[in-house]
Specification:
mainly alpha, D-Maltodextrin-Binding Protein, domain 2, two-stranded antiparallel sheet
């Protein structure tokens, strides 16, 4: 838990909010507080239907305690990640032993997935927490006839997941539960998933906000929230996030590095041993992994709710294995570690190319991964393990990423926009707006403190100038500055990607 808290909260607010998702959640929550409208989130003054309400409420509560800043925006995810780690430990310990539980939490916490999404002001870690707690509750209820009250927990946490990310909050807990019960008890088992009294609890928690949205926003809510951000996102490509059917294989390999190659052993154990405790996370993992593999829109964070199940399976692979599987897994991890180390060494010229001169930390990262590779080879040869040493190395690896890599990534991706947004904040007054020409970067709204006019063409800019003559600042991509200069804007500053212009 000390390591979990350290990795979750260490330098939590040290880098700027990233576009698009982090910044838009942070800004929408600020607008909620400023407008005192606690039912319909808005971004840039326009209703935002991407996600339900619960995460905005959690972030608003954090703002009240820590202020409207990067740290305050990310606290809900950091807390959710720590609670999820603790829940995983006690769930695994109850059905196995303390060492198995330690392996489970080790693979979850000491991973890129944990570092990235415990530090992100987006819904995914919170959603993963609620789905995991829901499924833990369901499994406990099915294992112990005297603990049927855990079915209320199953429905309760499903309702919270539903209020966090919509239909996924129902589809995953209930889909996994039905698939598991069908596998174990066939059709008669599916009946055990449903409980009338618990369903009433679900409705009491989840229905009021959805009912209020239907009453207030009607068809617009249905078209945007349900049709666009559920069905169209799954069946079509949203924001260009397309990927092949095997997209999540490399994502899993790197996201759960260096533990990922123990996952096949865990799946093999579930299939061969047919133990309920292993079959359950296997079905949980497979259900979500397959579901999103066939989705048209793909992003790495989509399968985060499957990572707790993957951690349970990986722990099984670490604790129970045959010599042959142990050999294959460790050799694969050794190759993966060596390749990662080589990649760090050879990435130096590319960083120089992008103007990043602070690259000495890459040798630290390369050294860590190469040492890991040596340990994996030795493990394969001697049929032994070095999990404590690997955990220590991985902890250093993640802390180095937090100290060095994240600030560099933030400065490269967001630094220029952050400076331009702060310039706009110092220059603009009252309800003056910023023109964002040919770009979608919510961080401009958050850091400038002013609404933006999103222009996609010269005609949009002309219309904005005609209706609001007080517009004096524009931010655009460098390749588009000529369009703005033709309309009377002067370039104040620019780099290879973005430009700041002002109309005198």
């Amino acid at each position: 838990m000390i390591i979990s808290l350290l990795l979750s909260f260490f330098r939590l607010g040290s880098v700027t909010l990233f576009d698009v998702d982090e910044a838009v959640f942070a800004q929408a929550t600020r607008e909620m507080i400023e407008s005192n409208n606690w039912l319909t989130p808005t971004y840039n003054g326009i209703n935002r239907y991407d996600k339900p309400i619960l995460f905005y409420w959690l972030m608003a509560a954090s703002y009240q305690v820590f202020g409207v800043n990067e740290f305050g925006a990310r606290v809900p995810s950091a807390i959710a990640s720590c609670i999820l780690a603790l829940s995983l430990f006690f769930f695994a310990k109850h059905y196995r032993d303390e060492m198995f539980a330690l392996y489970t939490v080790m693979t979850f916490v000491l991973s890129l997935y944990f570092l990235a999404y415990s530090h992100s002001s987006v819904t995914d870690m919170t959603l993963s927490l609620f789905i995991s707690l829901s499924l833990f509750s369901f499994y406990i209820a099915q294992q112990h006839k005297k603990k049927q009250f855990y079915m209320y927990g199953f429905y309760l946490f499903s309702a919270l997941a539903f209020l966090t990310k919509g239909i996924i909050g129902i589809a995953f807990p209930f889909g996994v539960a039905m698939a598991y019960m069908f596998f174990m008890e066939r059709w008669q088992g599916i009946k055990k998933v449903f409980n009338v009294k618990a369903a009433i609890l679900f409705l009491v928690i989840a229905a009021p906000w959805y009912g209020a949205q239907l009453f207030i926003n009607g068809q617009e809510f249905v078209d945007q929230f349900i049709m666009k951000h559920h069905f169209k996102r799954y069946l079509g490509v949203i924001s260009g996030h397309r990927g092949p059917v095997y997209y999540y294989l490399p994502v899993l390999l790197m996201g759960l590095f260096p533990w990922s190659m123990y996952l096949p052993m865990g799946i093999r154990n579930a299939i061969k041993l047919k133990e309920r405790f292993l079959v359950f996370p296997c079905i949980w993992f497979a259900f979500i992994f397959i579901f999103f593999s066939f989705s048209t829109t793909k992003l790495p964070n989509y399968i985060l709710p499957a990572i707790p199940a993957a951690s349970l399976l990986i722990a099984s692979g670490m604790a129970q294995h045959t010599k042959r599987w142990w050999l294959y897994s460790n050799i694969s991890l050794a190759v993966m570690s060596f390749m990662t180390g080589i990649a760090f060494v050879f990435s130096r010229p590319y960083l120089f190319k992008y103007g990043i001169s602070d690259v000495n930390w890459l040798f630290v990262m390369a050294s860590i991964t190469i040492i890991m590779g040596i340990l994996f080879l030795y493990s394969a040869a001697r049929d032994t393990s070095f999990f404590s040493a690997l955990s220590a190395l991985m902890c250093i690896f993640l802390l180095t990423l937090s100290i060095k890599a994240l600030p560099l990534a933030s400065d490269y991706l967001q630094g220029t926009l952050n400076r331009y947004s702060l310039y706009a904040k110092s220059k603009l007054q009252g309800d003056q707006k910023v023109i964002a020409y040919g770009m979608n970067n919510p961080s401009i709204v958050f850091y400038s403190g002013h609404k933006i006019i999103t222009a996609k063409s010269r005609d949009d800019i002309k219309a904005a100038l005609d209706t609001n003559g007080r517009i004096s600042i524009a931010i655009t991509k460098t390749k588009k500055v000529d369009d703005l200069k033709a309309l009377g804007f002067e370039v104040i500053d620019s780099d290879e990607r973005y430009a700041l212009l002002e109309k005198k």
